[in-house]
Design a protein that fits this description.
The protein is an alpha+beta fold and 534 residues long. The protein folds into four domains: 94 residues, no CATH class; 42 residues; 178 residues, no CATH class; 91 residues. It is built from 24 helices and eleven strands. Strands 1, 2, 3, 4 and 6 form a five-stranded antiparallel β-sheet that branches. Strands 5-10-9-7 form a four-stranded mixed β-sheet. The chain has a two-stranded antiparallel ribbon with strand order 8-11. This is Probable protein kinase UbiB.
Length: 534
């Protein structure tokens, strides 16, 4: 792997030289000591022929030549038109679904090898020319023998070695950053790269993508917000996926959406609602929501419905992360910056000795200007820079488990800016978040939590009994005398009563403090068991 990584480095260097990316870099306002580096680069010592390509085309072609990891980086950048010049953003958009396809005969052979059958035995029609091509796979249109119109997705061959080489260099850079930079250690670059490694390899397994699509479809079954195509499991394999073909307008085709009189304001608001529903209601969100994966149904343009494809990357949050994010966002919406600062300290994201007043003032300075403004008037680039400065000042740590969520937020924001620049992101999301917070302490939710806790009672009771018996007789080999048994019975009954009273008190105070009922349920269960059993 080390030899392959060295070869990959030379490959990256050749691409940089071929497309003159160093010219783009040194055209930026860099410090003098970085600009001086250009004089020691050997390939810049000789005259070079002028390229007849725009800077955006050079960057796009370079990322395209370097493979899937670089292509995905370009896809993320393409959604941030507020951070990129227009010509570069237009070129990077071509990376979303217009990557050059690989040989169709090779694709058909791989499909037949995976299915174990000839294409003519499975499909009554199969289009040799790809319908679309992306960084990891390409798609062919087809029709099953049973008549359903489908698309057949097949993984590009030979990806794993290239991905492994790129990841090797990313790990080297991440470890070097952690070793030599205190600021970098706060960002946990090694953990972030490790998380991305898992994500990119998961995306190469199309059975996982099929399972994700099926789950997402169930979550939004019958919803007017989002439609997910059906998966045909009989013809799905690790490198081949067959699913329903959808017909819609690509979300970035603003001209067509306008021609069919799509309600753009509702479309943008529903995009925000879909995101918050996935994150907080389902804890299962589509984490690759670049415009190439999102379409809009043509059925009801006055009540537009999204169509999502390519569920290879999904994210989920633990209940603790959900609760932390919800309370932080809720405090942000209320402009309760002291609460935000306190939550960061309580969660351990910043050191416990952080001065609350100073941290609160820093957060207020960053966040206050972005409220009550439409997206078109907000410079999120400046906001992010200010937040990074705040992070360095207070030693705030980045949580690797939230990287996918942050990436999805960037995509959603970039998409919302294109669809409806006057969208008030905060006022759109706040009612949903308030409703979710209320539902968390509703009788229905509490009853569901109690039911799940009751199912664990037998197991918890057995564990508690075994533990208490070992504690009461740690060295005993013979049966305890009667007087000792009576003493232990009274002790366990008193312990059970204490558990019962403590559990009831915690259950009463839990909703008020948003602590949940799981600890209370355990205490009540243990108390009842000890009293009845003994």
């Amino acid at each position: 792997m080390k030899l392959l990584a060295v070869r990959r480095l030379f490959r990256i260097q050749r691409v940089v030289i071929r497309y003159r990316l160093d010219d783009l870099l040194f055209a930026l306002p860099l410090p003098w000591f970085l600009l001086a580096v250009r004089y020691v680069l050997p390939w810049r010592w000789f005259p070079r022929k002028q390229l007849e390509l725009s800077r955006g085309a050079r960057l796009r072609l370079a990322l395209q030549d370097l493979g899937p990891i670089f292509i995905k980086f370009g896809q993320i950048l393409s959604t941030r038109r507020d951070l990129l010049p227009e010509d570069i953003a237009d070129e990077l958009m071509l990376l979303q679904d217009r990557v050059p396809p690989f040989d169709s005969q090779q694709s058909m052979k791989l499909i037949e090898d995976q299915l174990g059958k000839k294409i003519s035995e499975v499909f009554s029609r199969f289009d040799v020319e790809p319908l679309a091509s992306a960084s990891v796979a390409q798609v062919h249109a087809a029709q099953l023998k049973t008549g359903e119109e489908v698309v057949v997705k097949v993984i590009r061959p030979g990806l794993k070695p290239i991905i492994g080489q790129d990841l090797a260099w990313l790990f080297i850079l991440a470890r070097a950053a952690e070793r030599f930079s205190a600021d970098a250690r706060l960002l946990h670059p090694v953990d972030v790269v490790a998380d991305y490694e898992k994500t990119i390899y998961d995306e190469l397994d199309l059975l996982r993508e099929a399972a994700n699509a099926s789950q997402l479809k169930r979550n939004f079954e019958g919803s007017p917000l989002l439609y997910v195509p059906q998966v045909y499991w009989d013809w799905c394999r690790p490198k081949v996926l067959v699913m329903e073909r959808i017909y819609g307008v690509q979300v970035t085709d603003l001209a067509t959406l306008a021609d069919q009189r799509t309600d753009m304001k509702m479309l943008a608001e529903r995009g925000v609602e879909i995101f918050f529903t996935q994150v907080f209601r389902d804890s299962f969100f589509h984490a690759d929501m670049h415009p190439g994966n999102i379409f809009v149904s043509t059925v009801n343009p006055w009540s537009p419905q999204y169509i999502a494809i390519d569920c290879g990357i999904v994210g989920s949050l633990t209940p603790e992360d959900q609760d932390y994010l919800a309370r932080n966002l809720f405090a942000f919406f209320k402009r309760d910056y002291r609460r935000v600062a306190q939550l960061h300290i309580d969660s351990g994201w910043v050191p416990a000795e952080t001065k609350l007043n100073e941290f609160e003032a820093a957060i207020r300075t960053v966040c206050e200007p972005i409220f009550e403004k439409p997206l078109k008037d907000i410079s999120f680039g400046q906001v992010l820079m200010r937040l990074f400065q705040t992070a360095r000042r207070f030693n705030m740590e980045v949580q690797p488990q939230l990287v996918l969520l942050q990436k999805t937020l960037l995509n959603i924001e970039g998409l919302g800016r294109q669809l409806y620049p006057d969208l008030d992101l905060w006022n759109t999301a706040q009612p949903f978040l308030e409703r979710w917070m209320r539902e968390r302490v509703s009788p229905k939710t509490l009853l569901g939590n109690l039911h799940s806790q009751m199912e664990q009672l037998p197991h918890l009771a057995n564990m508690t009994r075994d533990l208490l018996e070992r504690m009461s007789q740690p060295h005993a080999k013979d049966p305890a005398p009667p007087w000792q048994k009576r003493k232990d019975d009274w002790f366990l009954r008193l312990l059970g009563a204490a558990h019962l009273v403590g559990g009831v008190m915690l259950a009463i105070g839990g909703p008020l403090n948003q602590l949940g009922h799981w600890p209370a349920g355990i205490m009540v269960a243990v108390g009842v068991y000890l009293i009845v059993r003994r």
